[in-house]
């Protein structure tokens, strides 16, 4: 299975999980610091993968993994703060536009990433689709929220590239585990700051869950999607994998319409149709391009004359050659 199919499956899982969050949470992410802390701690569950392929790595790779994990948790902290201060979700959806751009810029700088023409076109379509969905949903984006979104996108973009570097120097299970350990180490530092420690250990307030057990199951389901995203990054181009998150937010948008009975104006629905067209075209381009890349014959393959022709045709060539003489 190639990176495209894995990424597509991952975004479907994360999109449907986000929809479930809307149903299970009374208020989205009321405690940014607490959510980030427990997200980082839950990353240690990745230890269950160790029996399936853990190997030793160099100190440089270990340091890069910690850097990737730390950057990811910083990105999620600002992401949750943006959710906390945003009155609507559209400004958060715009992360699907900014984050891939940051990933591409970091990729060009650290990895020398060069996209093929069809990949660049797909990238632009996905980013445009993500921005369009964001602008359709958000009415009044506050400057503070936009700041959190931009910082989150920068950290997440850096994390994607650092993770790719880790996966190039270690197998997936080893790299993924150390990245999650790096994230856990960073969130552990939250406990050193007294106000954050109180928020984490004694959150107080009303119960924010409609069904805690279902919420925990949904977190496990989302965890599968997160693992698949990292696996897709290990196989493919990080900027393209990141741009695929436009699909996730499109699922959330459409799910809000069908399942949550959200009402939209005709202009919004027309814009959503255009965004759907952009995203669909990008998926077709990426899928078709990935298929052709995997099925195209190797131009450097050895050729043996006489094998690609039938014996009868070879004999006819020989006879015609004799006649010419």
Automatic annotation (TrEMBL):
UniProt KW keywords: Membrane, Transmembrane, Transmembrane helix
**Which species?**
Candidatus Ryanbacteria bacterium RIFCSPLOWO2_02_FULL_45_11c
Please provide, in alphabetical order, the Gene Ontology terms of the cellular component aspect for this entry.
Answer: membrane
**Protein name according to UniProt:** EamA domain-containing protein
- Membrane-crossing ranges are 36-55, 62-84, 104-134, 146-167, 173-194, 220-241, 247-266, 273-292
Residues forming the EamA domain are 3-134
